[in-house]
Design brief:
By secondary structure, this protein is α/β, with parallel strands linked by helices. The protein has eleven helices and ten strands. The chain binds aspartic acid. Aspartic acid binds next to helix 2, helix 6, helix 7 and strand 7.
Length: about 325
């Protein structure tokens, strides 16, 4: 009988209907990373056999808190991490991290690429990028720039922007860009660089002023298509796109990882997910990018790419 029970338990396998799969989002609820994760959770539910998939916003310190939480979590497939380019910038920004990006995670595949937008408080007098550049020049020393902590995409974008303009701004860190954009709308901060998964609806509603996109080409999303790129606005070579990936704690069993990866492949083809993401300017990952080995290779290449850029922009790093 003992054998039968053990066998039964194993045959039940992953994911168990009595359990919940938690995706840790290392930023505040209602922000751009949270948006991607919630859409993904919905798309994953069916391919994961109808199990419930919930979000845990373990926000703060530029995503290091939530990322550390997953590194320490039980490697059973019930705790996953959705994080972005921060996986590649944190190693250069922190002297000491409580986890190793290459060694403490199982890589489950990339999820999408998201452009960023440079936006300002609604009362900003500038009406286009050129006027904004003039305003920045005239207000040096008095400009507040919001970001979601060292390691956040908004931090990286702000760092590159200050470095390109050679203007130092006062950083105002938040637990995510959801609270940052609230303060931007309220006029407590001047500028924010944030993913379109957060800014598109605010730009559409004209709650913020938008000046440029950070991609190398203009976007096709209707409400964003008239925004120039920063590169064409005079910041030569300015280009940053925010990729997201899905991770599990190191040591998660191979058969569980395979099931999650298979489910991810189905989720990323879900027409509803694709439509929602494309409406927010994002491009959903496909083909090789959803392969764990490719994902891991890509993150390492990004660590190697951003490390020197962050070091060179050093004085603007916090
Ligand atoms: N993704 C945002 C950033 O990196 C933070 C957030 O999701 O709230 O700035």
């Amino acid at each position: 009988a003992a054998v039968a029970v053990a066998f039964g338990a194993q045959a039940q396998g992953y994911p168990s209907k009595d359990k919940t799969v938690t995706i840790v989002v290392p930023f505040a609820a209602g922000g751009p990373t949270d948006r991607v994760a919630r859409d993904l959770a919905e798309a994953l539910r069916k391919p994961l056999g109808g199990v419930s998939v919930v979000i845990d916003n373990a926000a703060g310190a530029g995503s290091t808190i939530g990322t550390a939480k997953v590194a320490r979590a039980n490697p059973d497939g019930y705790t996953l991490l959705l994080n972005h380019i921060g996986m590649a910038t944190m190693p250069a920004l922190y002297r000491k991290l409580p986890f190793s990006v290459p060694n403490d995670f199982e890589y489950l595949g990339m999820v999408n690429d998201v452009p960023m937008t440079l936006i300002a408080r609604p009362t900003m007098p500038a009406n286009n990028y050129k006027e904004l550049a003039t305003w920045i020049d005239q207000n040096k020393g008095k400009i507040n720039l919001g970001h979601a902590g060292l390691g956040a995409a908004s931090h990286l974008c702000g760092l590159l922007f200050q470095s390109a303009l050679k203007v130092e701004m006062t950083p105002v860190p938040y637990k995510g860009t959801a609270p940052a954009i609230t303060d931007l709308i309220g006029g407590q901060i001047d500028l924010l660089c944030d993913q379109t998964t957060n800014t598109t609806s605010q730009i559409e509603a004209k709650k913020v002023k938008a000046y440029a996109v950070t991609t190398d080409k203009r976007l096709t999303t209707p409400s964003l298509k008239d925004l120039p790129t920063l590169a064409e606005s005079g910041l030569k070579d300015f280009q940053v796109t925010i990729w997201h990936g899905l991770y599990a704690p190191k040591g998660t069993p191979a058969d569980v990882l395979k099931k999650i990866n298979d489910a991810l492949k189905v989720a990323l083809k879900d027409p509803d997910f694709i439509k929602k993401q494309e409406g927010l300017g994002a491009v959903v990952a496909a083909d090789q990018r959803i392969e764990p080995a490719e994902h891991k290779k890509f993150v390492q290449a990004e660590i190697d790419k951003w490390g020197p850029i962050i070091k060179a922009a050093g004085t603007y790093a916090d």
